[in-house]
Design brief:
Elements lengths: L2 E3 L10 H5 L5 E3 L4 E3 L10 H4 L5 E3 L9 H10 L15 H4 L12
Antiparallel strand pairs: 1-4, 2-3
């Protein structure tokens, strides 16, 4: 099983999860992070570390966010690895908790 970054990460991009990942499975886009399902070792460390509560175990991804499982795999293949903590996006706190942010995902 892998973990999946979902909707609430968009336009927030907190990197607390990256800091705890032992295998560098996170990849960074302009305003979103994803997990490479081929690299994730199911260590469970990232889920509680995410301040936006945007990370789910693959089997627990809400039905209305199921597209994010595919998006994580697709974007991890083209985005660079991120393995260091960085500041969140400048307006992250304003976007944290906003629903249905897929339309704002920058590739």
């Amino acid at each position: 099983m892998t973990y999946v970054v979902t909707d609430n990460c968009i336009r927030c991009k907190y990197t607390d999860c990256v800091d705890v990942c032992p295998v560098d499975c996170f990849h960074e886009g302009p305003n979103f992070l994803v997990i490479d399902p081929d690299e994730c070792i199911d260590c469970t460390l990232c889920e509680p570390a995410c301040p936006a509560e945007a990370i789910y175990a693959e089997d627990d991804v809400p039905d209305n966010m199921s597209i994010f499982t595919q998006l994580n795999a697709e974007l991890a293949a083209i985005w660079p690895v991120i393995n260091q903590i960085k500041p969140e996006l400048p307006d992250a706190r304003e976007w944290d908790g906003v629903e249905n942010k897929l339309q704002y995902l920058e590739r």
